[in-house]
Amino acid sequence: MKSGKKKSGSSRARGSKGAKAQTRTALGSVARAENGARFTLAELQHIAHRVIEFSEADETEIEIDSTTDALTRFANNTIHQNVAEHTLAISVRAVVDGRTARATTNKTDEESLRRVAAAAATLARHQPENPDLLPMLGPQKYQKLARYFPATATENPMDRARAVTRVCKLAEKTKQTAAGIFSSGVHQSILANSEGLFASHQYTDAEFSVTILEDNSSGWAKASSPDIHNINPDELAERASNKAIASRKPRDLEPGHYTAILEPSAVLDIIGSLFYDFSATAVLDKRSCLNDRMGKKIFGENITLWDDVYHPLQLGAPYDGEGLPRQKILLVDRGVPKNLVYSRATAKKMKTKATGHGLPLPNEFGEAPMNLVFAGGDKSVDDMVRSTERGILVTRAWYIREVDPYEKILTGMTRDGTFLVENGCVAGGIRNFRFNQSVIEMLSNVEMLGPVVRAAGEESFEMVVPAMKVRDFHFTEVTKF
Amino acid sequence: MDIRQREISTKNGEVGTLLESESLGIGIRVIASGAWGFASTDRLTREGVQACAAQAVNIAKASALAKHADVALAGEEVYVDTWQNPFVKDPFRIPVERQIDLLLRADKEMLAVKGVTLAEGSMMFRKIDQLFVSSSGSVIHQVKMQSGAGIVATSFAKSEIQKRSYPNSFGGQHSLQGYELIESFDLVGNARRIGEEAVALHSAAQCPEGTGTIILGGSQLGLQIHESVGHPIELDRVLGQEANFAGMSFLTVDKLRKLKYGSDIVNVVADARLEHGPGLGTFAYDDEGVPAQCTPIITNGLFTGYLSNRETAAAIGETRSSGTMRTENWNRLPIIRMTNISLNPGTWKYDDLIADTDDAILMETNRSWSIDDRRYHFQFSTEIGWEIKGGKKGRMIKNPSYSGITTEFWNSCDAICSREHWTLWGTPNCGKGQPMQTMGTGHGASPSRFRNIKVGVAFAK
């Protein structure tokens, strides 16, 4: 399980030369970014200023995202896909006569910049006036967040291929089959407007995910971090391999209500569905499961939850889609939903203060907490297993979809390592279950919590969550493997 | 590829999203040292493209570190061609205020129904202009125009959220057509009905739990085809290439031309040709330069074909790719994707099917879907259901759901409605691959009947 702390002793080979991209700016000057990124901050700022200069709108906002990403993909113990991309999105929001719209391009020549500015203004004109639209923000102050790591930005395909080759050889040695990905990237964003606001954020990310397969079993492990030094492919592959071994010859077990021990990835992907329910707009629209439930104790006493972009295990920019600084918000306090998050417009409608969670305008969703952090506990997964007479240990959950939006019933499958726990021990692998489980009930039935980690799954964006031991988890049907 | 897109959404009488976007770039896929590499860029200067090609070669050389054998491809002819899907009205030439007005008029109709707490509408148009050039000599220019729209009425009451969508859920209906598609929907004419149905669902009977007969409406059956036929027949999944993310498939190669996938009346094709219809899986050539084809997938119930590319076709001894390599955009590697995976029409008139059914639940319009990573066990729920008793459509049922095992389900099919009830549905949001790609797929289906199906498990206590 990834702890989020920097791991030492990694045997990964690592390059240090760096990918210095030769780039051409919008208006012709050639520059070279020194940080593995494609553009310098000054170049992005220059593009933004030119667009604002070209715009004839009453107010103009420009967001630029530049991404350099690479991903090495392996299966059947060989690399079968290996890709890289450089992308740029120049997104312009224009306000004309109380109306707003957005246009986006990836072209940086002067004509295209003029055209995208004009397109946003033209779109804005051709719609009814928006009574909720607020003036653009002026300059803001932001907390610095160090989420850029040079080693991640300069990772190269040979580094990734060497790590993947080691994992594939490890799998071959144990007569197993490995599949997965190893990716790294560097991202730059700026947000500026005609009222003097300027915000920028640069971050890196790296991810390693591995599935180890045997004839009738499989295991999985995954980690992500802005710092590639925190990712140890060999250790993750070994963990997945051990899960595949431990779940060999899965037995059939009758579906029903069981105590479930959910590893952090499983918790993440199930709980992840809750995030939009804390949007004030979702409550106004009456599509949140928190309608009529704010201030009432609907979860267990041991459930406390924040949105906190500043948490050391979180990612993200310190500002929202309009450039408002993000605040740390207590969402659930000891089982009671206490606060929602608000964009500027929603806050005005609901006569409260914006929290810095607005999505880029125009949109119909308002705002969302994107940096959920649970309060954890001190029990390890081993502690949870030892304390369980009969239960199910779940490595990960898969294909999770909402069955009932108000009771928050979710369906999904277990995958890549599902085990029967008997008399305090892992008693072997079982065939995968389908579950239909209310998240509200689940969070009322949590008996133990582990320490929080930055968990990585496939159904939700990353969050800081603990492992959980949950009583009466409803597994409704079983599949054939 | 040069992609232009327009997105409009409305909510409760106001405009939500209003966006136009364009994206131009190049993706270069190479084989070097016997292995694959891919790089992409939007820097389209000579030096930008050269650097991109060099990066693709360097990546391929890195891939070769873990190589077991050189990449081998099934043969394919060289093509020089140009193609554009037919459409009547260019949606980008329709004034945006007219498009907004249509959505707002539908919105008003939905909100006129007492009890509707949220009215939403959306439109999406995409023009994909792409040039495929290969070192073997093919030069293929294709232009695809896609359109789609939908409306949703939601009602919150009695601690329950119910909704109805038209013409389909999750963004509506999409196809390879112009604005004439949107005009054919009559969004305004259907808005009040779905609003009334959303409100009425609160008072409807709960879907019972048990085993019985179901009749699936066309759009729900389209998604059933997508999940329980379309994905398992992807040969990259079968061969383990998607094992880490999307998963694998129960349709191992030993089952080809041996497995009884469905009952004798079940015939499914993968058809990317225009003559199949203007689906989201319609094109002239795939993104590997292979012409559009019709592949029999299930023939009189027998499993007969996969979706393949040149590499996977060669891997299982087939002489030719079935032409299903598709990419979301210029910065994504083409991978095997569904084209139009369609259940061929049967012989039943819809009214005759209802009249022939003693006891069943008719389920319409998808609400949720989930299936395991080998595509055996699925569970679907729909927005609305109707009791069928003694050959007649009866009371409304809320929260309908059904579940099962793929081959058992398709073998229980005993009636498929005829061509006049058949629609080529579009699924615009199919996710696959790492990095994730979203692709549009087509699914022709008509209402069909299935026996001995487990229903109601999703809400079981």
Overview in brief:
The complex is a heterodimer of chains A (481) and B (461). Chain A has 481 residues and is an alpha+beta fold.
What does this structure look like?
The complex is a heterodimer of chains A (481) and B (461). Chain A is of the alpha+beta class and 481 residues long. Chain A contains ten helices and 21 strands. In chain A, 20% of the residues lie in helices and 36% in strands. In chain A, the strands form five sheets. In chain A, strands 5-4-3-6-7-8 form a six-stranded antiparallel sheet. In chain A, strands 9-14-15-17-21 form a five-stranded mixed β-barrel. A four-stranded antiparallel sheet of chain A has the order 12-11-10-13, with no helix packed on it. Chain A starts with 21 loop residues before the first strand and ends with a strand. Chain B has three domains: 2-16 and 81-203, 2-Layer Sandwich (PmbA/TldD fold), CATH 3.30.2290; 26-76, no CATH class; 210-459, no CATH class. In chain B, strands 1, 2, 5, 6, 7, 8 and 9 form a seven-stranded mixed sheet that branches. In chain B, strands 11-18-19-21-25 form a five-stranded mixed beta barrel. The chains are: A alpha+beta (481), B alpha+beta (461). Chains A and B meet through strand 1, strand 3, strand 4, strand 5 and helix 2 of A and strand 1, strand 2, strand 4, helix 1 and helix 2 of B.
Work out the number of β strands of chain B: 25
Counting helices, strands and paired strands, the structural category of chain B is alpha+beta
Oligomer: heterodimer
Tell me the major beta sheet of chain B: 7 strands, mixed
**Which structural class do you get from the secondary structure elements of chain A?**
alpha+beta
Integer count of domains of chain B: 3
Low-confidence parts of chain B lasting 5 or more residues at pLDDT below 50? none
Shape of chain B: globular
- When the domains of chain A are counted, the total is 2
| Helix coverage percent of chain B | 10-25%
Number of helices of chain A: 10
Number of helices of chain B: 9
Overall shape of chain A: globular
Strand % of chain A is 35-45%
* Strand arrangement across the biggest beta sheet of chain A: 5-4-3-6-7-8
Q: What value does the Rg of chain B take, in angstroms?
A: 23 Å
